[in-house]
Fold this protein.
Amino acid sequence: MLTGKRILLIISGGISAYKTLVLIRDLRKEGAKVTCVLTQGGARFVTPLSVSALSENKVYTDLWSLTDETEMGHIRLSREHDLVIVAPATANIMAKMAHGLADDLASTLLLASNIPVMLAPAMNPIMWEHGATKNNVETLRQREIIFVGPTEGNMACRESGMGRMSEPEELLKAVHNFFLSGPLKGVKAVVTAGPTYEAIDPVRFIGNRSSGKQGYAIAEALLAAGAQVTLISGPTHLKSLNAANMIHVESTREMLEACEKSLPVDICVCSAAVSDWRATSMHEHKIKKEAGNLPPTLSLTENPDILKVISNHPDKRPSLVIGFAAETKDIEQHALSKLRKKGCDWIMANLVGKDKNGQEKAFGSDENQIYFFTRANEDCELWGCMSKKHIAEHLVIKIIEHFEKNRKND
Ligand code: C5P
């Protein structure tokens, strides 16, 4: 997702500089070109050799290096990138930035730079809370510097509190968000995907055959169109999407809680195959098969309907709620009745179960056939048999058209 993006990464002197090595690797993996600058302090925590090996690039440390000045002056270095990241950003480098000091290569680059800057502060909690740092942070925020973290927790200095540098995956997500572009830029979406598991006892559960492929494909297509995506996934074998805010859940109730916590959003796509029922009570220990005993009887209770709850949310209803309907027969009739009963805006219906050749039609398969209905127009639109990726892209085109039409009407 970051192919061709040029990032200037400044590593200042904090113990969390080791996490920045992971960030360099992750940025490179996604195709970004990373040029690193180490402050004198930074070079005490990580070596130029490791940084250069991971970034596969020259590392800059010295403001007065004649060779660097002839190869690439510090002014050019500060301009020829799309984003500057300072991670870790110490209290010292933030103070220098706030006051416009330029006494080493890193601070000079930051003063000479005219491109967006992202900071990942890392320091002792007392330093973070200090009035001087607070004023500097305020000054930098007013200059539209992007802050990622810090977070709360235990520190290397054995104190705990606010001041830990954000983890590399959080920083990577912030970089993704920064580079989001496309017709859905600024639009927030929640996508549910996969099955839910409802525990019977510590080892058994009620589940279903959903693979999550369709939901993940929709999340990817939304990201590619520039939307900010939270993907709430039941148990699947699929790889997490780096660019999405991933929330992994097991049960329906956990999925609903995660959805509600993610509100407000503009779009909610409920593609998860949610379990309609759960065991009335979960056994604390594994139910034993005793000789002579009858098989146990499962008593079930209804799960909350996530799609219905979100569609009827009193104050945070997304402006577009999309549901799925997995049917084994009478697809149009069931889809329409679901659209009305649940109160969502669009329904994507598909046939599930095995075809004449014993092949799964939707769950786990790479292809799917969609019957598309909207509340505004209850006519069925049949999308021919397509890959799940194509269905996702087709849906996202419809979403883009919907938002463009609404913008024009506003
Ligand atoms: O009622 P049914 O399960 O067929 O409806 C399917 C749609 O409702 C899907 O979009 C599914 O994600 C959603 N659903 C839900 N919560 C449930 C059951 C279904 O969100 N408990």
Observations:
- Residues 18 and 46 are 7 Å apart (CA to CA).
- The longest strand covers residues 320-327.
- Residues 192, 252, 270-272, 274, 276, 303, 305-307, 323-325, 338 surround cytidine-5'-monophosphate (CB under 6 Å).
- The chain is about 35% helix and 25% strand.
